[in-house]
Design a protein that fits this description.
- This protein starts with 14 loop residues before the first helix and ends with a helix.
- The mean pLDDT is 96.
- The protein has two domains: 260 residues, 3-Layer(aba) Sandwich (Aspartate Aminotransferase, domain 2), CATH 3.40.640; 134 residues, Aspartate Aminotransferase, domain 1 (Alpha-Beta Complex), CATH 3.90.1150.
- By secondary structure, it is an alpha/beta fold.
- It is 42% helix and 14% strand.
- The protein has 15 helices and 14 strands.
- The chain is globular and about 70 Å long.
- The site of pyridoxal-5'-phosphate has 14 residues, from helix 3 and helix 4.
């Protein structure tokens, strides 16, 4: 018998969610409607993005953005190799050509020098990933990309000509609530996609949102409306508007998809987002800081604790994944540590197998040895439980067992 059973994630259900969900159930309207709209508004207030559309997932949001930009077989899209497969799968779904780029050893976000080397006249979009919650280096990326765009970007559509550089999309599945140089995540890229999947900081079980923040003269509200139609089969009148007596008529103006968020799920995300800073983010930050302080004191150079704040440029994580690095370890050794922790009743995790190590991407010709920084990061990485509701005693137990095993095995 172990002292505790500590799962990797326990979803946080704020008190207000029960009433809000009951209200939706009682209202007779379960799919996209006023609660989804309220969630969009709250996200817009919190991120400062020019427009927000809720979707069925982060993957759907990423896909919609790429599709709106016109990505197809003639286009290359750059993606960091250290991410979840969703970031790259959407490029394949659009028929675009995937270009993978290695990451920075410091925080596993995309390496800007490598990214600049990977640009070609056919590069039409870049997907950055705020992996673990730390925003990628957008200010420098935007500056370098503007300069490159002026000289080398070859637009293929009128939209692309207007922007004059590749589109930048932030995969912010991990970074809702993160900050960079005084501005929240949501305002840094042309599009920013959030995830409300069950393990994320703010969840609706499944769900996502797209912040639309293109520079002038793009009309972000009009783009939102266009994407909203595409996210519902291309239908000009949504289900709720059709529900009004006598208002049944609709048209379908494009072959859209089914990617809308229902009110029933939005209710949970809305209540979580309302209390996010106070009840969720602050607690995650406290736990991150505590892990890092103790691990640094006890294990020193044997581990590399995650970068939670960075002074150059000033960045703050959304404290999503506590990604500890076991310096110099191989993945087999790390896996043995995970097995020992499991025997102690502690569920640890690994984020991520780089795309270059996954069958579907190897079949496309990508190889781990071509992205050595990501591979090293992966071999050394172990993710520890962090969530509101993880008690001090539980966290101390995780630390005690981890430190014990690392000293024995390292
Ligand atoms: C980095 C990253 N991007 C995208 C996704 C996809 O999110 P969703 O499940 O909401 O589509 C995930 C999900 O885990 C993720 O970790």
């Amino acid at each position: 018998m172990t002292r505790f059973r500590i799962p990797f994630v326990r979803p946080y259900i704020p008190l207000g969610a029960y009433d809000r969900i009951r209200q939706v159930l009682d209202s007779g309207w379960l799919t996209t409607g006023p609660v989804t709209e309220a969630l969009e508004q709250l996200l817009q207030e919190k991120t400062g993005a020019r427009a927000v559309l809720c979707t069925s997932s982060c993957t759907a949001a990423l896909f919609l953005a790429l599709n709106w930009w016109g990505i197809g077989p003639e286009d290359e899209v750059i993606v960091p190799v250290y991410t979840y497969c969703a970031t790259a799968n959407v490029v394949v779904h659009c028929g675009g050509r995937l270009r993978l780029v290695d990451v920075r050893s410091a925080d596993a976000t995309i390496d800007l020098d490598r990214l600049m080397e990977a640009l070609t006249p056919r590069t039409r979009a870049i997907l950055c990933v705020d992996v673990f919650g730390m925003p990628a280096l957008y200010p420098e990326l935007m500056e370098r990309l503007q300069e490159w765009g002026r000289q080398k970007f070859v637009p293929r559509t009128e939209r692309q000509e207007r922007l004059g550089r590749p589109l930048v999309i932030a995969d912010a599945a991990h970074s809702l609530g993160g900050w960079l140089a005084g501005k929240p995540v949501g305002q840094w890229a042309d599009f920013t996609a959030f995830s409300f999947h069950a393990v994320k900081n703010v969840t609706s079980g499944e769900g996502g949102a797209l912040c639309i923040h293109l520079p002038s003269p793009f009309d972000n509200s009009a783009i939102r409306q266009e994407l909203k139609i595409l996210a519902l089969h291309g239908q000009t009148t949504d289900a709720r508007k059709k529900w009004v007596e006598g208002k049944w008529r609709y048209d379908v103006v494009a072959h859209g998809w089914k990617m809308n968020m229902p009110d029933l799920l939005a209710a949970l995300a809305y209540e979580s987002l309302r209390v996010y800073e106070k009840e969720i983010l602050s607690e995650r930050k406290r736990q991150f800081t505590y892990y890092s302080r103790v691990l640094q004191e006890e294990l020193g150079g044997r581990v590399c604790v995650p970068l939670v704040q960075d002074v150059n440029p000033l960045r703050e994580s959304a404290y999503h994944v506590y990604a500890l690095r076991l310096v110099g370890w191989r993945s087999g050794q790390r896996d043995a540590l995970i097995a020992r922790l499991a025997e102690d009743g502690i569920q640890a995790n690994v984020h991520f197998v780089p795309l270059s190590g996954l069958t579907a991407f190897r079949r496309m010709g990508f190889r781990p040895e071509d992205f050595p920084v990501a591979w090293r990061f992966f071999e050394e990485e172990i993710s520890l439980p962090v969530y509101p509701g993880l008690t001090k005693e539980e966290q101390d137990y995780v630390l005690e067992r981890l430190i014990h095993h690392v000293r024995q095995m390292g």
